[in-house]
Amino acid sequence: MGGVVSQLAQLFSSTLPTVIFVLLLFVILERLLFRPLTAVLKEREDETTGAMARAREQTASAEEKARQYESTFQAARQDVYRQRETARRATLEDRAATLNLARQQSEALLKAAQTSLAANVASSKDELQTACRSLGEAIAETILRGPGQGAGEGAKS
Question: Tens digits of per-residue pLDDT, 3-17?
Fold first, then answer.
């Protein structure tokens, strides 16, 4: 067994410079390559994560603005509908008022025409009665005078 230990000791002593070189290379690589590379990768990951977070925030903000725009647009549309309805009602009321006024005026004209017509009928009846009386009197006078008497003779008697 002593031979195995001596062979191992000889093998270790011959590999000691290689082990030291590998450890030294590991330290150098760690300081010159791995740390800067790890720092760059971490910074890159942080920036990527930050950019993703900003993108999510901007997306949420854009969606919120779109919702606000849509609600504002809907409110404006409702306001326009209300204004149209108000204008339509006002127009209908004006139309109804104009129709009522025209109806009242036509009824007043009709009543005036009926009153005038009734007065004309009454005066025509009076004129006809007067004409009928005078004609009746003339007929009665002609009949009472007889067939041979003239108009001037009856006046003398």
Answer: 888 888 888 888 888
The pLDDT tens digits of the residues spanning 19-40 come to 899 999 999 999 998 999 999 9
Q: What angle do CA 4, 8, 14 make, to 5 degrees?
A: 145
- Taking a C-beta distance cutoff of 8 angstroms, is the pair 141, 154 a contact? yes
Is the pTM value of this prediction over 0.90? Answer: no
Which of 101, 104, 83 is closest to 93 using CA atoms?
101
State the DSSP H helix or E strand holding residue 132, giving kind and residue range, or none if neither.
Answer: helix 35-145
Residue pair 154/145 in contact (Cβ under 8 Å)? The answer is yes
Q: What pLDDT does residue 8 have? A: 83
Tokens 């009602």 label which residue? 89
Evaluate whether 145 touches 137 at the Cβ level (below 8 Å): no
